[in-house]
Design goal:
Layout: E1 2-4, E2 7-21, H1 29-39, E3 49-61, E4 64-68, H2 90-95, E5 106-108, H3 114-117, E6 121-124, E7 127-130, E8 136-140, H4 141-147, H5 164-174, E9 178-181, E10 185-188, E11 191-195, E12 204-210, E13 213-219, H6 226-229, H7 241-258, E14 261-264, E15 273-278, E16 282-287
Parallel strand pairs: 4-5, 5-8, 8-9, 13-14
Antiparallel strand pairs: 1-2, 2-3, 3-4, 6-7, 10-11, 11-12, 12-13, 15-16
Length: 290
């Protein structure tokens, strides 16, 4: 799809939720009007709506293949009907990028919500088994502990994540494919896991630096770029709201000062961009041109 330095970046779409009113974000009409000039046409659609993508990123760099956030997965119950018992040709779309599941060297989940780790596993002969048989699955230890059943009582209960540990995490650990890592961890010379706490207790991001260019795969640190203009827009669940705000401040600073491309998990086409200062108009989010 595009390059950052010497890294080749592609993605596989699982599903897209369209026609969501922008007011669903929890923002105000005044803020929408003040930022309409840059949100249209990608991040503010017809009828003042927006859409959420659910896709996995595939990064090829340093002779490695890395998959980021393997979506929801098929055949899983979920109290939210849109995610319940999916039957989507995701793996066919994945392999249409030219990468087979056997080619993947690393799988990284920014966090362990159902829509970021589902395709860690697939159902085979009645058992959940790792989808990427030759990969090392990198689980940030703090995030792993947050979702482990032994620690569940210490955090808010989220019904939509019931059973995720048992279906999407434990089978990888039992297969011996999981590496528990710190929230600062070097994968390759070009890729480093960095903290992005708040949305979940151990939420992390993946920082790419290649040939003088930078990008951050920021997971759910924000779902819509308007949240980088007004950090107070919550949208969704958060384990630590103050940490969310700090993470967003850091992303804005790094995008402005270092021209770092921000690639969150759920943006519609073109999926990423940069925070910009505009004389007389304040900050905006400039979409990638693909």
């Amino acid at each position: 799809m595009f390059s950052v330095g010497k890294a080749k970046i592609d993605s596989a779409l699982e599903l897209e939720l369209t026609d969501r009113p922008i007011a669903w974000l929890g923002t105000t009409p005044a803020l929408i009007e003040a930022n309409r000039w840059w949100m249209e046409p990608h991040f503010l659609l017809k009828g003042d709506s927006w859409s959420l993508n659910f896709r996995s990123w595939i990064v090829r760099v340093d002779d490695k293949v890395i998959v980021i956030d393997p979506c929801n997965g098929n055949g899983r119950p979920n109290p939210m009907p849109v995610f319940d018992m999916l039957d989507i040709p995701f793996l066919e779309r994945f392999e249409a990028t030219g990468v087979r599941v056997e080619d993947v060297d690393y799988v990284f989940c920014t966090h362990m919500h159902h829509d970021h780790c589902g395709w860690n596993t697939m159902l085979r002969d009645g058992r959940w088994v790792p989808t990427f048989p030759n990969a090392r699955y990198l689980f940030v230890e703090r995030e792993y502990r947050r979702w482990h059943p032994d620690h569940a009582a210490g955090f808010q209960h989220l019904a939509y994540n019931d059973g995720v540990y048992e279906r999407s995490i434990a089978p990888v650990v039992e297969a011996g494919l999981a590496d528990l890592v710190r929230d600062t961890h070097r994968l390759t010379p070009s890729l480093r896991i960095e903290p992005g706490r708040g949305h979940t207790d151990g939420h992390c991001m993946l920082h790419l630096v290649s040939d003088g260019e930078e990008a951050m795969f920021s997971g759910d640190a924000f779902h819509h770029p308007l949240q980088l203009i007004d950090h107070s827009i919550k949208f969704g669940d958060h384990d630590d709201w103050d940490a969310v705000v700090e993470t967003r401040h850091r992303l804005v600073r790094d995008s402005l000062e270092r021209n770092m491309l921000l690639i969150p998990a759920h943006l519609p086409f073109p999926h990423g961009g940069w925070v910009r200062e505009n004389e007389g108009r304040g900050r905006s989010f400039e979409a990638m041109k693909l």
